[in-house]
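Forum: Protein Structure Q&A
Topic: Joint prediction for protein chains with partners

I've read a bunch of threads here and the consensus seems to be that you should model interacting components together rather than docking separate models afterwards. I'd like to see that in practice. Below is the full input, 359 residues plus whatever partners are listed. Could one of the regulars post the assembled result?
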Amino acid sequence: MAKRIIHIVGNRPQFIKLSLLHRSLSESAQQQIIHTGQHFSDNMSAVFFREFDIPVPDHQLQIHSLPHGEMIGHMLIELDRILALERPDAVIVYGDTNTTLAGSLAAKKRNIPLMHIEAGIRTGEEDMPEESNRYLSDRLADLNFACTYLGVENLLKEGMPAEKIHNTGDLMLDAALLFSQRAKENSTYVSTLVPAGQPFVLATIHRAENTDNPEALAAILRALHHIHSDIPVIFPLHPRTRQVIDAQGMELKLITTPPLGYLDMLTLVQAAGYVVTDSGGLSREAFFFQKPSVIVMRQMFWPEMSKHGPSLAASADTNAILTTFRALQGPTRSFDTRVFGDGHAAEKISRLILNYLHG
Ligand code: UD1
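Posted by a regular:
Agreed with the consensus. Here's the joint model:
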């Protein structure tokens, strides 16, 4: 009998990964989607469901804009109620957000097998909200799917049994390969922002460690303005970053846009010369398309990108970002994108989940 699987999502990057796995499982499982509502604006949520043709969620919660503990608590109550009602054979959670942790706890407390996508990332920074979300979700999961060998190594080091861990490659690479041509055909979008053929830098900043501290954000913006005086910087603005910039009355003279859909973002990253970001997703897309990048983080989520290519971390300090950016402008090392798999992560993950459930 077809197994019943529930995907729990709530954040922008999770919708992209969901779309690939949902498609790949569609012939062999009955699937439902729960959207927690953590991301709720049209340009942070609905646009992805349209672009990827994802079915309308079966359960749509509206839990967002709350302190982390409260957000996770509200999600847990609602998810527990739905899981008790639906009684699926497995729950799939993605990444390291508050939605991921709430989904993991809800599944575990109902003894439902839990599958964690993008497992095994560690920065060692316990004060980062994502670090505890990912650590706890990994521990609770029955199967952990890592995007690279390093995720597997991290989990083995922590004593996790090897049979719970699989290196499947990265669903974001599947998506980038699948949509890169369509995104290129969309390339007129770039000329609405900079003259055609003009080299530019694509930058995004949204992570709490960089936005919750206005001094850190001001230092990053100073570096971006400096770069912009040389090479134009296109800066799609996450709502959190917009809120802090507005509240602090910070100067912003970059080429800004609202949050963009996946295709526009993929178009921009393919056309960009360089990327400056604190996004785990965009930094990987830059790597896939061989764009030298500054990752504005104290510790990179994906140190494999420095080991297997010229992506460099810099702290939220104007000089550190500028020095790192200049280092990228000379000859750089080549990129070995195979570290993130072969673009068939969805098939591998689906097969492993189905084997587990039917085993
Ligand atoms: C969350 C994740 C982060 C992930 C990111 C992807 C956690 C702890 N963090 O961060 O790991 O990289 O998603 O984008 O879960 N907002 C809107 N409209 C929206 C969504 C958010 O205005 O559609 C506002 C919220 O009200 C809030 C702010 O943006 O004030 C930040 O949203 P939040 O849910 O806290 O997390 P992200 O910063 O997006």
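The mean pLDDT is 96.
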